[in-house]
Each structure stands twice: as structure tokens, then as C-alpha cells.
Amino acid sequence: MSTLPAYFISHGGGPWPWMTGPFAEGYGKLAASLQDLPRQLGSAPTAILMVSAHWEEPDFTVMTSPAPGMFYDYDGFPPETYTIRYPAPGSLSVAKRVREVAASAGIRVGEDAERGFDHGSFVPLAVMYPKPDVPVVQLSLKAGLDPEAHLAMGRALKPLRDEGVLILGSGLSYHNLRQFRTTSGPPSHAFDAWLQQALLKSTPTERSELLRNWEAAPAARLCHPREEHLLPLMVAVGAAEQEPAQCVYHEDDFHGQVAVSSFRFG
Fold this sequence. Notes:
alpha/beta, two-stranded parallel sheet, 32% helix
């Protein structure tokens, strides 16, 4: 198998693929982009390493259950959305490799045998791979949310791309829920324009430096009051730090006004 790319995907809100009515409206382009990702790869990966915005630990931590359960980390949705199942198997061998390559880079990685798939993981995966037959391992963010720490983790994970493991950073390029339906338009467009420039039109060295200092970007803290939904991007970039980027999903009017994007590296 050839070297796989790494991705940063915007995963949308809550259990949107299972919703109807007003909440579900406006997800057509995002759904199409996620459904197209397997075509881009050509063949199914041997496993998926998912770095979700919805899991943080004091140290990077990897899921080690051979049959992960579910973690419904959303509130206020219909009862049936708390019975959703995405029964993809885990992979002890991939979890072991994550710890090995991280240790080689001097990065400590803990283990969690109880953690289930959160919605930053099972929601996009259910759209990408409706048949849950690709093993999935989640890797947490590290508390403190230091950009360089997550770039470094991505660098450590790079060898997995040659082993058939698809690295997916799952977050959202805009994540200010308080302003999402009110004043999100102008700041999301300003920040997205910066992302496009930083990721697609900068040299690899410039790109990493810009991401380390992302808070200096236009409207940065208006778009990410807390940056957990941006940090999976750092892992994906680190895993393909010297390679070109491509925007694989973009719309200027997500839910009416928000600019959102997803990116492929390598």
C-alpha cells in the first residue's frame, strides 16, 4: 500500500446524520465531502487513527479496547440518538504502534481500555464508512492544547501512514457555538481565508510556524474561544509536515453564514 495522506475534517454538530428537520438542513456538502474520502484513498485503510476534538487527557492517551463502546457527548437531542451504534473494532496492534512511535520521539502516551467512540469520531466515520469494518483507534488531545506538542505528535505518527493507517484529525474549522447562528459570518470568513493561505500557499516551514502562532490570525479567538476543535489540525499537519495540502471541503454558508473547511495533507 502506498503512503496514505492525513486529513483534518470538520465533523459538524451533534448526531447530524441521524437527524431530520431544521437541524439536519445544510449538511449536504459536508456529507458529500466525507462520502468522497474513501474514493480519494482508492482502497480501504488497514485501520484509522482518529484524533477527536472531544477527548483530552493530561497526556496523549490511546484507546485500547478491542471492541470500543459509545460515548454520547452531546445534550438535548432525541432519545434515539443515544442508542446509535458504530461497532467498528479497535486495534491493539495500532494502539501499540502509536505508543512505540511516540516513545521514539520522547512523547508519553497513556492507555485507556474503557473509552468509547465520541461523536467527533463516530459521526464522520458513519458517513465515510457506513459499514463499520475498518478498525478504529482514537488518540486524545493533550491538556494544555499546545500547538507544538500536537505538531510533534503528528511528526511521530508519520510512519503509520506507510503502514496503511489513515490519520484523521476531527474538529471544526470554526467553533464558537454561542455566536454560531448570530455573528459568526464575518469572523469565520476572515479566519478561513487565513487558514487557506497558511495551509495551501505557505512553505512547510512557514505553515508550521503560522500554526504555532494561530492566535495571531484574523478573528482567531472569535472563531475558537477554546481551541480544542483546531488542535486535531496540528496533528494532521505534523504527520505530513513537508508535503502539500489540498482543501477537500469548503463552503461559505454552512448553516446560513459560517465558512468551514477540511484539508488533506500528502
